[in-house]
Specification:
The structure is a single chain. The chain contains 16 helices and 17 strands. With 423 residues, it is α/β, with parallel strands linked by helices. Strand 6 (116-123), helix 5 and strand 7 form a beta-alpha-beta unit. The structure holds guanosine-5'-monophosphate (2 copies) and manganese (II) ion (MN). Manganese (II) ion binds next to loops.
């Protein structure tokens, strides 16, 4: 491809022409090639130019004569299709391009695939403005990258997702100071006596514009922007303070706080936990820290070390989502834990699925030998609860017992909770 790289204004000019070619529909296909910077540093700029030229030649061959293939960046190409019959045609073209890009190319001594993403936007269906058309294709290409699909057609939800992520990053750091965070509490009961033993604290963020945002969504962002220690500190203190508000009759109940993988890489975390227990004058055995099995596995040796030190302070350790994180028997016995929470996915179909029953029963038997408590989470019905008790789970958590509830509601639930005989 001898063609020079269009600058953004030149590209927008070409898009204006495409848009004006009405009444026929037009499509913009944006192709991003990934990893070429690295190839350029290893093999040189000429090698990269050769790769792009070869790919462009093949792509051109697969397109119709009046489709336009242009270079819009060092590692970016666009195809402008003017004579679209329908949307299906644009998808067909994107698909053909993807097939070509999926073919491995020679790089040095090896043959490798160049990772790519493709975004498609349409005119006049989606917009009649060149800048929008380009943005939409850009957003679709990000969606293609995230979803690991060969190409994506622009849709408005992708834009909302990207805008929301942007806002989350900007607003999360101030969420604590602006009192937008709160904790919900979900009860855990002992299965043989039906007694309440405590509750798990689950973080909630009420965003002023985007409404409730789930922790699954904002915790990875918090980790990325480096404010996880602040959030965990807030969680620990809020949970311990609110536990005191549950009242005298509930003074034996424990509270469980979820911690992130990042907390376990931070030496200061142990001190934070000790400080928080001191501030709220709470016996350490009334605090449980829940850590997912998969985050434990990220740096097993160091996690085991930190968890052991936490346990020696008296804090209880619970391994969350157990069964989903490639546990091996080899390390099972050195897990510094007091409790295993069997992942919801094994619990949901337990009545129908023999394999799930078998898995739960195996985990229970191993855990018993190690004298661990076993929590079944996600228990949704009486029948499921009964089966889990038969299988030997001694602690139960799930919608059937109680949903996660805001503090005020949880307090009311505690007062009305004759069912759970915690008094
Ligand atoms: O209620 P639910 O959607 O809240 O929780 C989703 C996931 O988010 C759960 O797996 C839970 O472990 C995690 N989570 C909830 N609250 C917190 C928190 O305060 N800290 C961390 N690290 N994870 C949390
Ligand atoms: O991974 P962790 O166990 O921390 O996840 C807790 C999540 O599970 C929360 O999002 C909570 O709302 C959800 N949850 C708790 N009990 C149930 C249940 O019985 N059914 C379903 N579907 N979700 C539940
Ligand atoms: Mn949990």
């Amino acid at each position: 491809m001898k063609q020079s790289i269009l600058n953004p204004l030149q590209l927008l000019g070409r898009l204006d022409v495409l848009i004006d070619s009405a009444p026929r529909q037009g499509a913009l296909i944006l192709i991003r090639l990934h990893g070429l910077k690295r190839i350029s540093s290893i093999f040189g700029a000429r090698a990269v130019e050769q790769i792009i030229a070869d790919l462009a030649k093949q792509m051109k061959r697969s397109l119709r004569p009046d489709d336009n293939l242009l270079r819009s960046g060092r590692f970016e190409l666009v195809v402008l299709i003017a004579g679209l019959v329908n949307q299906g045609h644009a998808k067909l073209a994107a698909n053909k391009l993807a097939r070509i890009l999926e073919t491995p190319v020679e790089i040095g001594e090896t043959v490798r695939k160049i990772p790519f993403s493709i975004g498609v936007s349409l005119t006049p269906d989606q917009t009649r403005e060149s800048e929008q058309l380009l943005r939409y294709a850009d957003i679709a290409s990000i969606a293609s990258k995230i979803t690991r699909t060969p190409y994506q057609l622009y849709n408005h939800d992708d834009l909302e997702g990207i805008v929301t992520d942007w806002d989350i990053e900007g607003d999360l750091a101030n969420a604590i100071a602006r009192h937008q965070l709160s904790l919900d509490y979900q009860p855990k009961i002992r299965s043989d006596t039906g007694r309440l033993i405590g509750a798990e604290a689950l973080m909630r963020w009420h965003h002023p514009v985007h409404g409730p945002i789930q922790p699954d969504r904002f915790i990875p962002v918090a980790e990325n922007i480096g404010i996880m220690p602040k959030l965990t500190w807030w969680c620990l203190n809020t949970a311990l303070r609110e536990r005191l508000e549950w009242g005298e009759a509930a003074s034996h109940l424990s509270v469980a706080v979820n911690i992130s993988a990042l907390d376990l890489t931070d030496e200061r975390f142990i001190r934070s936990v000790r400080n928080a227990l001191g501030i709220w004058d709470t016996p350490p055995e009334l605090l449980t820290l829940e850590i997912t099995e998969s985050s434990l596995m990220k740096d097993l040796a160091s996690s085991i070390d930190i968890l052991n030190r936490l346990r020696s302070c008296g804090v209880r350790i619970s391994i969350d989502d157990f069964g989903t994180g490639y546990s091996s028997l080899a390390y099972f016995k050195q897990l510094p834990a007091d409790e295993l929470k069997i992942d919801r996915s094994f619990v949901i179909n337990i009545l129908e699925d023999d394999l799930d029953q078998h898995i739960v029963s195996t985990i229970v038997q191993m855990a018993r030998k190690l004298e661990l408590d076993i929590v079944a989470e996600g228990v949704g019905s009486e029948a499921i609860q009964a089966r889990l008790i038969e299988l030997g789970c001694n602690l139960i958590q799930g919608y059937h017992i109680g949903r996660p509830m805001p503090q005020v509601q949880f307090n009311a639930w505690l007062r009305d909770g004759i069912d759970w005989q915690f008094l």
